[in-house]
Amino acid sequence: MGSATESKGFGNAIVNEWETEDFKNAQKRLDKVAGHLKLDSNTLEPMRHPKRSLSVVVPARMDDGTVQTFMGYRVHHDLALGPGKGGLRYHQDVTLGQVASMAMLMTWKCSLMNLPFGGAHGGIRVAPHEMSQGELERITRRYVSEILELIGPNQDIAGPDLNTDEQTMAWIMDTYSVNIGYTVPSIVTGKPQSIGGSLGVLQSTGYGVALSAKRAAQYAKLKGNNPTVIIQGLGNVGSAVARNLTSAGFKVVGVSDAEGGVHNAKGLDIEALMSHIEKHGNMYEFPKADKVTNEELLELECDILAPCAVSNQLHAGNADRLKCKVVVEGANAPTTPNADDVLDSKGVIVVPDILANAAGVTVGYFEWVQGLMHLFWTEEEVYQRLDQLVNDVCTRVFETATDKKLSLRMAAMSIAVERIVEARRMRGLYP
């Protein structure tokens, strides 16, 4: 089932297929916290690699009658705490290494949030915006049929990620259920409410990022009553962050999407901006705002910078030019390890992704539980549980960082890795 081709052990020079730059960055973060925790090599080594990885060829019939093939991946990083949980992404640049790095990130995220899940992730190398809805459905269903042996409500539960949504999850649920012979709602999370999706799931990630930002503003002792915020990426997550922080009295001064952004130092009217985007399909003619590129947006002065787009946006090339006081990572892995070092030296507080955007997988856990119980909660109940979990974990991470003089990322990683180490120690090594 493993997809790496090698004739020697991990310690030799032959490179594993998943060891891309993304995965090496994930390993660097683990190695750094392992040094702080003084983990021996026997404890560390198994966590530096995926438990299993599956690469599949996904043939699908296109609308013009031709058959095209796409590469698909599903990776389990560590399952010491429970079944795998992780997203499914569609992008033309998806690689096994990128998926493996996201699976490792999910391990730490689930552990930090005290969820009974291990880390998993998947992806298909496809350009979804060039596909019709019918083509995407056929690709999704064939992919699921190719990875059936790896997934299940007690094995591996998928959720939406880059370029996938509740419709994608509905296709996965249906394909799996048809093959099993009965309906299995808990095979995915983030599905439509009509077929067992949880209330509150669509806005949960952005809600959690905003909640983390509010806690971080207190932790950083930001002055003034209206901290300024810049948000890179105004999709589902970024728009929820903007709305929630605006409601809390923060002043959003800059936002962007894949094409670029707008900035107004006096503050943007977020509802007016969202209405403009809905009407015109873009944000660039929005009145009383200056156009900026994504690169320029990141380097503008603000109290809080929330990268909510894609990975590796804050790197060694721009980290020293950032003028924010706090970074709240709404995206997965938006900051490289080298940028972390620069930001630490500048005194910039970074709320790591495994804490800042963990509300998404947390509400995914709620949905999984509701599906298993066939008992559904109100939206108020969902958010009460979410508030308590996120606030409790924020408090623990902030107190650990203060007591041990660590960055928030090192504090969060330490808590997450220690829990995995304890679980693996108690379970032992078989055989």
Keywords summarizing the entry:
Rossmann fold, disordered N terminus, single chain, seven-stranded mixed beta sheet, 431 residues, alpha/beta
| Helical segment count | 14
Low-confidence stretches: 1-14
Strand order of the largest sheet: 9-8-7-6-10-11-12
Helix content: 40-55%
Shape: globular
Estimated radius of gyration? 21 Å
CATH class descriptor name of the largest domain: Alpha Beta
Structure overview:
The protein is built from 14 helices and twelve strands. The model is unreliable at 1-14 (pLDDT under 50). The chain has two domains: 21-183, 3-Layer(aba) Sandwich (Rossmann fold), CATH 3.40.50.10860; 204-351, NAD(P)-binding Rossmann-like Domain (Rossmann fold, 3-Layer(aba) Sandwich). With 431 residues, the protein is α/β, with parallel strands linked by helices. Strands 9-8-7-6-10-11-12 form a seven-stranded mixed β-sheet, with helices on both faces. Strands 1-2-4-3-5 form a five-stranded mixed β-sheet, with helices on both faces. The longest helix has 26 residues, at 379-404. The chain has helices at residues 21-37, 41-44, 96-112, 133-146, 166-180, 204-219, 236-247, 270-280, 294-298, 337-346, 353-356, 359-373, 379-404, 408-427; strands at 52-61, 67-78, 84-91, 118-125, 156-160, 228-232, 251-257, 260-263, 290-292, 304-307, 326-328, 349-351.
